[in-house]
Write a structure and sequence with these properties.
Layout: H1 8-18, H2 22-26, H3 32-39, H4 47-56, H5 61-71, H6 78-86, H7 94-101, H8 108-124, H9 130-144, H10 152-163, H11 171-180, H12 187-203, H13 209-225, H14 229-245, H15 251-264, H16 267-281, H17 285-304
Helix pairs in contact: 6-8, 8-9, 8-10, 9-10, 10-11, 10-12, 11-12, 12-13, 12-14, 13-14, 14-15, 15-17
C-alpha cells in the first residue's frame, strides 16, 4: 500500500497554524481517533485520506511537501538540498550543503542519488571541474547499471548522465519509465525527474511529438498537483516547444517563460535560459523579449484609449 505517513506531522502543523481543531479537520472524513493514530504512527495514512484532509485546509499536496522541505526542523535536509540544486537556488544553500555532506543514508540508492546532486552543485560552484563531475557520475553508473530501473531515484541518476552526453539510456526510455512509475512513491523526486526529463526533451529537439504530448499531458497533471512557480514557468516553455514543433503560435507561452525567469532567477541562470531558448527556437531571446514586451505595452495602451 502506498502511504503518506511522513506528511501527517506537516499537515498537523498547518492545521494548528490555520486555527482548526482536530475535530473540525476530520469531520466527515475520518474520526479524530484515527487521526491521532496516524499522527502517532500506530497506523499509516493513505493518499486518499491525506488528500481529503489537505483539501479541508484549502491546500494541495505540493503546498504540504514544500512546507515540509523548508520549515520542518527535523527534516534531514536531503529534499531541501535537492530542491535548491534542481532550481540552481544557491544564495543561502551553504548550511544545507554542509549538513547533507555529513549524512550517512542507510539506503544506498538514496545515497547515490543524493551524491549526483552534491556533485552537480560542486560543479556549478566550481568546486570540481566538468571532467571530475563526469568521472564521479560514471562511477555511480557502475553501481546502478544492473539495478532495477523502476526507481525514480535511479531515473534521476540516468537523467544526470544524459545531461552530460552519456547516452546510457534514450530519452524515450526515460519518458516510458517516468510514466510507468507511480508518482506517489517518492513524489518530490518524481517531480524533479519529470521536469528535468522535459527540459532534456526540449534541449535535445525531440521529434516524436505524439510521445512528447503524452508526456506533457502527464506532466500537467503532476505540476497542477504540486504547484511551484518556477516549475510552472518551465511548463510554459514545454508548451511553447510543442507549438513550435507543430507550427502553431507559441509567442505568448515563450514570453511567459522568459518574463517569469527574469522575476525568479539571477543573471547567470537567466543568461543560460536565454541561450538555450535561442538554440531551440532559432531566435535571439533578448530581441524576442523586447519585441513581445512592446506588443504588450501597445495592447495595454489601446485598451486604455
Amino acid at each position: 500500500m502506498i502511504t503518506y505517513e511522513k506528511y501527517i506531522s506537516v499537515l498537523d502543523d498547518l492545521r494548528i497554524d490555520r486555527g482548526l481543531t482536530v475535530e473540525e479537520l476530520c469531520e466527515g472524513i475520518i474520526s479524530p481517533r484515527s487521526y491521532y493514530r496516524y499522527l502517532n504512527k500506530t497506523s499509516v495514512i493513505t493518499i486518499d485520506i491525506l488528500d481529503q484532509l489537505i483539501n479541508r485546509l484549502n491546500l494541495n499536496l505540493g503546498n504540504v511537501a514544500i512546507y515540509g522541505i523548508h520549515f520542518k526542523s527535523e527534516d534531514a535536509g536531503v529534499t531541501r538540498f535537492i530542491f535548491r540544486v534542481h532550481n540552481k537556488s544557491y544564495h543561502d544553500i551553504k548550511p544545507i550543503y554542509e549538513r547533507v555532506l555529513k549524512l550517512n543514508l542507510s539506503n544506498r540508492v538514496a545515497e547515490l542519488c543524493l551524491n549526483t546532486f552534491i556533485y552537480k552543485y560542486q560543479k556549478d560552484v566550481n568546486e570540481i571541474t566538468a571532467d571530475e563531475y563526469r568521472e564521479k557520475l560514471l562511477l555511480i553508473y557502475e553501481e546502478v547499471k544492473d539495478l532495477h530501473k523502476k526507481d525514480i531515484r535511479i531515473v534521476l541518476i540516468y537523467i544526470s548522465l544524459i545531461e552530460i552526453g552519456e547516452n546510457v539510456i534514450s530519452y524515450a526510455e526515460i519518458a516510458d519509465l517516468i510514466l510507468e512509475i507511480d508518482f506517489r512513491v517518492e513524489s518530490m523526486y518524481y517531480f524533479f525527474a519529470l521536469d528535468r526529463a522535459l527540459r532534456l526533451s526540449v534541449k535535445a529537439n525531440v521529434s516524436n511529438m505524439e510521445k512528447y504530448r503524452r508526456f506533457l499531458k502527464h506532466a500537467k497533471m503532476i505540476f497542477d498537483y504540486f504547484y511551484i512557480r518556477n516549475i510552472m514557468m518551465n511548463y510554459s516553455l514545454y508548451i511553447a516547444y510543442e507549438k513550435y514543433k507543430t507550427n502553431e503560435y507559441y509567442n505568448e507561452d515563450l514570453y511567459k517563460h522568459l518574463t517569469n525567469a527574469i522575476g525568479i532567477y539571477g543573471k547567470p541562470l537567466i543568461n543560460e535560459i536565454f541561450y538555450n531558448v535561442g538554440e531551440v527556437f532559432k531566435i535571439n531571446a533578448k530581441d524576442f523579449l523586447v519585441k513581445e514586451t512592446k506588443k504588450q505595452i501597445e495592447r495595454s495602451y489601446i485598451k486604455l484609449i
